[in-house]
Amino acid sequence: MKKVLFLHGRWWDGQENWFSWLKKELETRWFQVFNPELPNTDNPKLREQVDFISNYYEKIGKVDYIVWHSLWCLTAIHLIEKFDISSVNCIFVWPAYKWITEEVWKNSLWDVYRNLKEYFDSVVLYKKLWNRYTIFLSDNDPYIKVDSAKNYYSKIENVKFLVFHNMWHFNEGASIKKLPEILDYLS
Questions:
Q1: What is the pTM of this model?
Q2: Other beta carbons less than 10 A from residue 119's beta carbon
Q3: Which residue ranges make up each domain of the chain?
Q4: Predicted pLDDT at 68
């Protein structure tokens, strides 16, 4: 039985957006899905999130897939670095990156920028050679720009970018309650 570690994004829980749909779909395909509820998602702190996910990961052991959404994609990279995780298929959906703090949040959402700055200022080595990364992007996302995201995440080896039309933030705000395209990368 293959294992999937899946983490919802900031402000959400594991039942919102397409998250519960994905869990049910994978379970019908005989996947073991781990979808913990992260603490303090309204005001996350990097160290708290990494510690929580690290403790959780130590309990469940090696996984075959890691699926992350939004800000938690940066947390995923810290987990991969900390445990020297390799030979895992990583799927990042709407991955946040440093440009957001520099261009968008700093100007229009100062409180968000100040609270999340540590996520973007931390050093990540991007050295994992044997993981495969698939990054889902949307051509009309208000914050994540396709070219900037590709530039930022191209530091990771073995990365594949998928650009979707009109998927916004891949959430219920864009009426996305299912994401069947992701199943092609979880097999």
A1: 0.82
A2: 24
A3: 2-185
A4: 84
- Tokens representing 2 are 């293959």
Residue-level length of the chain:
187
Q: Are 142 and 96 in contact (CB under 8 A)?
A: no
Measured from the Cβ of residue 112, the count of other Cβ atoms closer than 10 Å reads 16
Helix axes 46-60, 110-121, angle to 10 degrees: 50
Tell me the CB-side half-sphere exposure of residue 134, using CA atoms within 13 A: 16
pLDDT tens, residue by residue, 60-98: 988 999 998 777 677 777 788 888 888 889 898 877 766
Model pLDDT, residue 163: 96
Q: In this structure, are residues 91 and 120 in contact, taking their beta carbons and an 8 Å threshold? A: no
136, 164 Cβ separation under 8 angstroms: yes
Q: Does domain 2-185 have CATH number 3.90.660.20?
A: no
CA-to-CA distance for 159 and 134, rounded, in angstroms? 6
Nearest to 156 by CA among 83, 98, 90: 90
Closest CA to 62 of 122, 123, 4: 4
